[in-house]
């Protein structure tokens, strides 16, 4: 496709506006777009002028460009170049059905017209039809097998469709065809899917996973230490995962058990949810019942918003309401969560921040530092514990030493609001198949 210089585009815009301001308000829209010698204007000149109007960035001028294309098609019905230009203009205006009709007409009449397949792929990608975009770009790839641009375009479509393996293959082929290495590296990195809960949402080819963990918490002031153990069997599905968990808490020289179902499910585009229910003893250190719902929504470029509700029942009911915002930047993930517990007066608030680095560039291995303050329901420790700290900090390391075996090491310190300082060590072993 021919690129119209910006100066040309601005010149046409200025001339058109000047004509309107010069007393030609009684002229028709078509007349305002045509010079005095329109009848003598050649085909190429009219096509270039229409393209300049279409790319000027002004919706009104874009509509004038469409009227010019209409007039040209009346004089030359089925002209592929004009249909392609009008189809692209329709797509830029968000008139996707009309754009598809024009572009499909071109690809049907001239299946070897590479620019038409490129434009059709763009249309499908912009209208949130990535699988159809990949198919259209595939024709472009076949027509230009040695070029990098169609491979990059199709790779982006595969990425939008969620097929990261196909996207990476196209990006690698683009590199082999001479694409800029830094661009390919950035595109390839963008196919590494990451979530706030990677082991629960990303199957990575495995259907089952098992997690066995133990936490040991020591206290100052002669308070007895706590030991928490847990076993989680998780089944991965195309839409998320479902886990059965067994939890045991040994606190205050009392041992309680609980069972839980924990699910993660994909919702609409870039959204997923965690739904959990836990059943414990009639009375004890673990809640009799606990449930939670948290929804995550990706927005913009690398942002993730969340909202949650936790409900715990001991001798009485307690609810926690939370909102969070996360940010993915390269191999980094940062998140802040604000949580509120309604109560007398204004209730209580807690703040939690997390900084995670995927140090190997994949979605499995990471280092994480967290810090929090205030009252919260800590679901990482025995499923549902009410924590109330003046300040706490934790670090953890997750490492898969084989594709199917991994571990997590953690350590933490907290200044509890009840006057006891605590030191925590944790270990978990992962197995997946």
List the helices and strands and how they pair.
Elements: H1 6-21, H2 29-33, H3 43-54, H4 59-75, H5 80-92, H6 96-109, H7 114-126, H8 130-143, H9 149-161, H10 164-176, H11 181-189, H12 198-201, E1 208-219, E2 226-237, E3 240-251, E4 254-266, E5 271-279, E6 289-299, E7 303-313, E8 317-329, E9 332-341, E10 348-357, E11 366-378, E12 385-402, E13 405-416, E14 421-432
Antiparallel strand pairs: 1-2, 1-14, 2-3, 3-4, 4-5, 5-6, 6-7, 7-8, 8-9, 9-10, 10-11, 11-12, 12-13, 13-14
Helix pairs in contact: 1-3, 3-4, 4-5, 5-6, 5-7, 6-7, 7-8, 7-9, 8-9, 9-10, 10-11
Q: Give the strand tally.
A: 14
Structural class by sheet pairing and helices: alpha+beta
Estimate percent helicity. 25-40%
What's the mean pLDDT score?
Answer: 83
* Fourth CATH level, the homologous superfamily of the largest domain: monomeric porin ompg
Helix tally equals 12
Strand content: 35-45%
Largest beta sheet: strand ordering: 1-2-3-4-5-6-7-8-9-10-11-12-13-14
Order of helices and strands: HHHHHHHHHHHHEEEEEEEEEEEEEE
CATH-scheme architecture of the largest domain: Beta Barrel
Question: What is CATH's topology name of the largest domain?
Answer: Porin
**How large is the radius of gyration?**
30 Å
The top-level CATH class of the largest domain is: Mainly Beta
Head-to-tail CA distance between termini: 50 Å
């Amino acid at each position: 496709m021919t690129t119209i210089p910006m100066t040309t585009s601005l010149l046409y815009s200025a001339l058109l506006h000047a004509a309107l301001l010069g007393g030609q308000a009684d002229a028709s829209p078509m007349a305002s777009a045509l010079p005095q010698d329109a009848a003598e204007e050649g085909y190429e000149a009219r096509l270039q002028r229409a393209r300049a109007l279409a790319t000027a960035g002004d919706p009104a001028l874009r509509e004038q460009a469409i009227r010019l294309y209409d007039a040209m098609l009346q004089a030359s019905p089925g002209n592929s170049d004009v249909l392609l230009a009008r189809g692209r203009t329709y797509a830029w205006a968000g008139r996707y059905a009309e754009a598809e009709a024009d572009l499909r007409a071109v690809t049907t009449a001239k299946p070897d017209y590479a620019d038409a397949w490129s434009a059709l792929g763009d249309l499908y990608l912009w209208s949130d039809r990535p699988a159809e975009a990949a198919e259209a770009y595939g024709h472009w790839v076949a027509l230009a097998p040695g070029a990098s641009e169609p491979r990059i375009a199709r790779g982006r479509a595969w990425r939008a469709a969620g097929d990261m393996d196909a996207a990476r293959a196209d990006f690698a082929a683009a590199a082999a065809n001479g694409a800029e290495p830094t661009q390919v590296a950035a595109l390839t990195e963008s196919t590494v899917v990451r979530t706030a809960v990677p082991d629960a949402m990303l199957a990575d080819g495995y259907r089952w996973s098992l997690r066995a963990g133990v936490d040991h918490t020591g206290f100052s002031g002669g308070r007895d230490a706590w030991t928490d153990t847990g076993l989680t069997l998780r089944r991965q599905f195309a839409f998320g995962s479902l886990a059965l968990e067994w939890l045991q808490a040994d606190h205050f020289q009392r041992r309680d058990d609980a069972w839980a179902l924990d699910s993660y499910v994909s919702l609409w585009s870039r959204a997923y949810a965690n739904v959990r229910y836990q059943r414990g003893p009639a009375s004890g250190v673990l809640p009799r019942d606990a449930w939670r719902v948290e929804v995550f929504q990706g927005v913009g470029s690398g942002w993730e918003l969340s909202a949650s509700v936790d409900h715990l029942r001991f001798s009485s009911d307690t609810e926690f309401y939370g909102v969070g915002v996360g940010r993915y930047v390269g191999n980094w993930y940062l998140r802040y969560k604000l949580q509120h517990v309604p109560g007398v007066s204004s209730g209580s608030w807690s703040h939690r921040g997390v900084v995670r680095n995927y140090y190997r560039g994949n979605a499995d291995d990471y280092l994480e530092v967290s810090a929090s303050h205030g009252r919260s329901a800590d679901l990482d420790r025995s499923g549902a514990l009410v924590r109330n700290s003046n300040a706490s900090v934790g670090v953890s390391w997750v490492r898969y030493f084989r594709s199917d075996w991994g571990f997590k090491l953690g350590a933490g310190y907290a200044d509890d609001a009840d006057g006891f300082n605590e030191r925590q060590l944790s270990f978990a072993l992962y197995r997946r198949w």
